[in-house]
Specification:
By secondary structure, the chain is an all-alpha fold. The protein is built from six helices and no strands. Helix 2 runs parallel beside helix 5, helix 3 packs antiparallel against helix 5 and helix 3 runs parallel beside helix 6.
């Protein structure tokens, strides 16, 4: 019989925690390896999305899962296209400050926002956009194998509603981009520093 002074072997909980930690490290290492391969990552996600759509079309069900995925992907796209620091929020704060009398600390330095270089910083970086999209497609694909999520709906209504929602949302986003003069992607050639022209 063992006495209470003798150390016992590792507890089952510690073994499980060690195994989970090992899996998390392996998962993170895999993600780190995929980071520089932008085109391949997006092609893999597109392949998963095509597989999911094929599953929906052939099974003729799970339209509500497909609709939820489409709305989530639209939300991610909007966050990807928006700047981290929203210029409309800055303008609203400046207008509120003027209405309240402003800060009278002395003369302010002149500033021309149009003349200075401001890099476009996304609200949702490309890596997070890809990772969230891929996870969402995988979850939707797994949900399409469960009868619980096969809610009977009239799918043409969902398609029309999504198309209207997409058109209105993109119109608003494009108007915002035009009003505040920002472009969320690189156009033209990139500047090369330190090399010959």
């Amino acid at each position: 019989m063992m006495s209470s002074d003798e150390p016992m072997g590792p507890a089952p909980l510690q073994a499980v925690q060690a195994h989970i930690s090992k899996l998390q490290r392996r998962y993170q290492q895999t993600l780190d390896k995929w980071t520089p391969h932008v085109l391949q990552r997006w092609l893999a996600t597109l392949g998963l999305l095509c597989l999911f759509m094929l599953r929906i079309v052939l099974a003729q069900g799970w339209y509500i899962v497909c609709y939820a995925l489409a709305i989530y992907l639209l939300n991610l796209l909007l966050a990807f296209l928006q700047p981290r620091f929203d210029p409309s929020l800055h303008d609203d704060l400046a207008a509120d400050e003027i209405e309240e009398g402003g800060i009278e600390d002395g003369p302010a330095l002149p500033s021309q926002r149009d003349d200075e270089f401001r890099p476009f910083v996304r609200r949702l970086p490309e890596w997070q956009f890809w990772l969230s999209s891929t996870r969402a497609v995988i979850v939707a694909l797994l949900c399409s194998f469960s009868e619980v999520f096969d809610v009977p709906v009239y799918w043409p209504i969902l398609v029309v509603y999504f198309c209207v929602l997409f058109a209105l949302t993109m119109r608003r986003q494009i108007q915002h981009m035009i009003k505040y003069k920002y472009i969320p992607w690189d156009i033209g050639r990139k500047a090369r520093y330190g090399g010959s022209k």
